[in-house]
Amino acid sequence: MCVLLFTIFIENEVNLHTLEIEISSTYYNTCFDKILESILQSTNFIHNIKYLKLYISNYNENTVIKNRILPLIHSHQNLKKILIGDNYLSSYQSLLLSNDYNCSNTLNTIIFYYVNFKGLINLDKVFEQLNCSSIVLQNLGQILPSKLEYLCLSLYHINANDFEIFLKNSQDTFIKKFLIYNNEGQDILPSIKKYIMKKKRANYLAINDSSFEAALFNSSYKSKELFSLKDDVKEFELYNIKVQSYNSLVIRISDFVNEID
Questions:
Q1: Paired sense of beta strands 18-24 and 51-57, if any
Q2: Which of helix, strand or coil describes residue 254?
């Protein structure tokens, strides 16, 4: 039925405002394949779609991306945003590096979500030269507005000195919900207390930090959540800052990526 519907659209030269296609390992079948094949055979139909949204998840076969998705993106000629997640970057590498694709003048947003850049030709050398965490922290504080509803710093390694520079540079910024994900970084809690807590610069705070230690049932264990450090939580409460779990405050990429123009 779906294939017939698209055939009618194509034959009648229908101009669609929005077309959303979601493909996963659970639902991909010959029906999807026939739909994509029909669309690819009609370039005018693709060109007349104002908003083409493709969702591809949990599919291990690169043949679908190579034979169907990449040609579809190439034919649309008006690609503005692409999100690449998990282990799919290598499949889209030709799209990002090639001059043959038509998206170079329209693409304004590329989001890499849980992507491993290691071993990728041409891209790996670029990222090896970047110390992204330090660059972000040393410069971000200077450009923040006076008030933010939400700020989430999710960095692989936070250097304590770089983080203090960020907090000093952003002293005039109030952050309603402040989240920090510090994976394998240095201890930043003293700086948080000095520049955020004592100056009452946040309403809600969540920190996932591998350097934290908490006591539970009289035994020491590793905890990544500031929320687990009860004494510290009480201290923040004295300054009217509510410490919550990271997962309860974080806005997932899937929650807002569709809103990006």
A1: parallel
A2: helix
Please check whether residues 137 and 88 belong to one and the same domain.
no
250: three-class secondary structure by DSSP:
coil
Identify the top-confidence range among 35-49, 109-123, 231-245.
231-245
**Stretch 120-127: mean pLDDT:** 49
Cα–Cα distances in angstroms (integers) from residue 33 to residues 23, 50, 62, 100, 152, in the given order = 10, 22, 14, 25, 39
Domain finish residue from 126, 141, 169: 126
In a shared domain, residues 154 and 60: no
Whether residue 56 is found in the same domain as residue 9:
yes
User: Which two structure tokens, joined as six digits, stand for 24?
Assistant: 């996963």
Q: What is the pTM of this model?
A: 0.53
Which structural domain range is residue 188 located in? 132-249
pLDDT tens string 70-92 = 777 777 766 677 666 655 555 55
Using DSSP, state whether 34 is helix, strand or coil. helix
Q: Residues 6 or more apart from 60 whose CB is under 8 A from it?
A: 25
Retrieve residue 53's tokens. Answer: 């949204």
Tell me the pLDDT of the chain averaged across its residues: 75
Which residues, other chains included, contact 55 with Cβ-Cβ below 8 Å and sequence gap of 6+? 20, 21, 22, 23
Greater confidence (240 vs 16) lies with: 240
